């Protein structure tokens, strides 16, 4: 029995040795006659589908590529170049803002100098309307736009809304026909969704970056008066402002607006204006040339635990305290007083001052609004005729 076992062990050893030699020196002897398999993907290199491949074909092949989405949206994203003249001080000015403004108005202490800047925009209408950021075209003397296909032309500002940092441009008729972005609804967007940012960062040309939605409804950042940002880690660098934030189907979900950075570079926190907000403002600007918002003439203040204690309210009381009422304003005429606690506006719950400002701004001027308030520990309802928010100075 031991002899048979030794013969078996030697045979196995010889076979393994032969297999090792063949695998090392002539591996083609072991291949089957089936067609050659597809080459393995190279790490870090995206597999690109054929140009004529549609979305369903790409999905069937399991390609992890966003080429289809980019091909749908990129043609509608334009580069925006602006030029303007600014006053440049001849001598160093004081650090104090008031003194800087005072010295800046003194003749002879500054000179006019040409300045250029760049940004991005999105064609959202076949008639040539482009959505971009207000800060991209602010005080511009001339605006030039370059399309992704190489065409270029001039544009003019139709209207702007500094409080949301949005502006609408109109392209020259010579550029038609135009590729138009397809709107999505921001209600279809969720935290964790993949998004792509398309724009012209640093002036290097159209660029696409990829990330996910990391938060929705961001506010209190001090960027704009009315804030309701999409937060994403897709790189939004200088020059991306006004560009498109799209989903994986190529639908426009936001207008890139800002980054949170101490150095000016992307640190993984970018902000975009939701497409529903941008679309509503765009339509109003095209129709009337400006944006009208509701106004009550009050100064709201968040309820802190100390304030709740002072008013004899539970610490978890929601709403805002009216800290000031403008004389002869809509709220003053309706009988609202300092110290009233506003809890709802037209049945919409008020959580903080930003929520209240947004709810009031959405009220149609001239219409009546109902506010549920608490005064002296008792609940009551007040009806206010909404006014028009004064245009802020630029």
Q: What would your notes on this structure say?
A:
This protein is α+β, with helices and mostly antiparallel strands and 394 residues long. The chain folds into 3 domains: 76-175, Thrombin, subunit H (Beta Barrel), CATH 2.40.10; 186-287, Beta Barrel (Thrombin, subunit H); 294-388, Pdz3 Domain, CATH 2.30.42.10. 21% of the residues lie in helices and 32% in strands. The chain has 9 helices and 20 strands. The chain has helices spanning 2-25, 55-61, 67-73, 97-104, 134-137, 275-288, 305-310, 330-334, 353-361, and strands at residues 77-89, 110-123, 129-132, 142-146, 152-161, 166-171, 194-199, 207-218, 229-232, 244-246, 252-259, 270-274, 294-295, 298-302, 320-325, 341-345, 348-349, 368-375, 378-385, 387-388. The strands form 4 sheets. It has a 6-stranded antiparallel barrel with strand order 1-2-3-6-5-4. A 6-stranded antiparallel β-barrel has the order 7-8-9-12-11-10. The longest helix is centred in the N-terminal third of the chain and has 24 residues, at 2-25. Residues 32-53 have low confidence and may be disordered.
- Rg calc: 30 Å
Going by CATH, what is the homologous superfamily of the largest domain? Trypsin-like serine proteases
Using the coordinates shown, work out and report the CATH topology of the largest domain.
Answer: Thrombin, subunit H
CATH class of the largest domain, named: Mainly Beta
User: Which secondary-structure class do the elements indicate?
Assistant: alpha+beta
**Largest sheet properties:** 6 strands, antiparallel, barrel
Strand content: 25-35%
